[in-house]
Amino acid sequence: MPSATATHQASPVRGPTRERPASGSLFLLLIAVCTAVTAANIYLAAPLLPLISHDFGTTPSAVAWIASVAQLGYAAGLLFFAPLGDRVNRRPLVAWLSVATTVALLTAAVAPGTAALAAAVFVAAAATVIPQLLVPLVAARAPADRRARHVAAVIAGLFTGIVAARVLGGLAGQGLGWRWVFAGSAVLTLALGLATALALPSDRPARQGGLFSGIAELPGLLRRSPELRRSCVRQAGMFGAWSALWTSLALLLTGPAYGLSTATAGLFGLFGLTASAVAPLAGGLVDRFGAARVVGTAFALAAVAVPLFWLGGHVLPALFAAAIAIHAALVASHVANQTVALTTTTAPATANTAYVVSGFAGGALASAAAGPAFGHWGWAGVCAVAGVWLALGWATTMRTGRR
Q1: Which long-range contacts (CB under 8 A, 24 or more apart) does 208-215 make?
Q2: Can you state the angle between helices 226-253 and 316-343, rounded to 10 degrees?
Q3: Measured between alpha carbons, how far is 164 from 146 in angstroms, rounded to an integer?
């Protein structure tokens, strides 16, 4: 098995012409913070579901589909907007997407019903694809022997945003109401998005084909790159397992089993900080040992986490251990698979689109299945959905071989 370093050195990724320096710790930090804020928008609704259902006079399980709508919106936004990173100047694109996300979040804050809220959440998630416009830029400008570590820094920001959405969203929602959470996120998105746009280099990639021709290129890109296909399917399985569990967790914690408040349940998201801590370590391991070994270890860890989640439906300490394990598995797999996706073709932004759309499509489908499963079979049904998604990703990994 070739090392990741060797793969990176032979990588066809081409960095764009620089108009100004766009590397260094401060620039990387700004991108990581912007990624955290924008990624939080995708998961903002999940910890607020009990409050939303109460406000609209329904049950939490009846509005659980809104969390799936956010993930489907993000996948749609990735499909249309993320490939533009290979074709247009990122600065105005990031600025306009930040404005669009802000408007959608403000619309969600004043939504009169679940349908209007779901529509606003879909648009906000579709426009908040800024992290996936920035990751290819970071990968292209990083030294070959440290590329996975640079990608991991941005991924750490992404998962920090996911944690913030659950923890701060739950606390703020309990104290101020769920509508103010959406409004506050709108302000942060606008501020960080515009600041990041100003800091980006004004690169003008040579456009080949139409503006949205990257969408048409996706099938051929996947067909020509088995490594990209493997990364897509692996992460769809892993992300689906995580998503089914994490988007349904508030229903378990605020339900009869534990009876926690929304704010207290939101604090459970602090276990997600595991992801932020693991990301840099995973990046170093990928650079040193290669992606396949890291992904295999991640799947083994997730296989332990799923039964721990099932046990956690009755025993709270098991839920603690399961949360740590699933986040560590998800981020390690994500760092490894996304590094492969970014370095295996000559169109990194388009390849990244295929990769992230696959992951979020898997996550959205798993979340959509988890809601009815919780309604019919309780927490055990959610764990079964997670186990099925994880098994599918692992079986495909084994069948198609190792990288």
Answers
A1: 208/87, 211/84, 211/87, 211/88, 212/80, 212/83, 212/84, 213/87, 214/83, 214/84, 214/86, 214/87, 214/347, 214/349, 214/350, 214/353, 215/79, 215/80, 215/83
A2: 160
A3: 27
Are 181 and 30 in contact by the 8 Å Cβ rule? The answer is no
Question: What's the rounded Cα separation, in Å, for the pair 305 and 327?
Answer: 9
Per-residue pLDDT tens digits for 22-36: 446 777 788 888 888
Report the predicted TM-score, pTM, of the whole model to 2 decimal places: 0.70
Find the mean pLDDT for residues 221-229: 86
Q: How far apart are CA 136 and CA 341, in angstroms?
A: 10
CA separation for the pair 211, 396 (Å, rounded):
34
Token pair of 205 as six digits: 């990639």
DSSP 8-state secondary structure symbol assigned to residue 15: P
Q: What angle do CA 92, 146, 30 make, to 5 degrees?
A: 35
The 3 state secondary structure assigned to 42-77 is: HCCCHHHHHHHHHHCCCCHHHCCHHHHHHHHHHHHH
Q: State the Cα–Cα distance between residues 94 and 210, nearest whole angstrom.
A: 20
Q: What is the mean pLDDT of residues 74-79?
A: 82
What percentage of the chain exceeds 90 in pLDDT? 23
Distances in Å between the Cα of 260 and the Cα atoms of 70, 179, 251, 256 are 25, 21, 10, 9
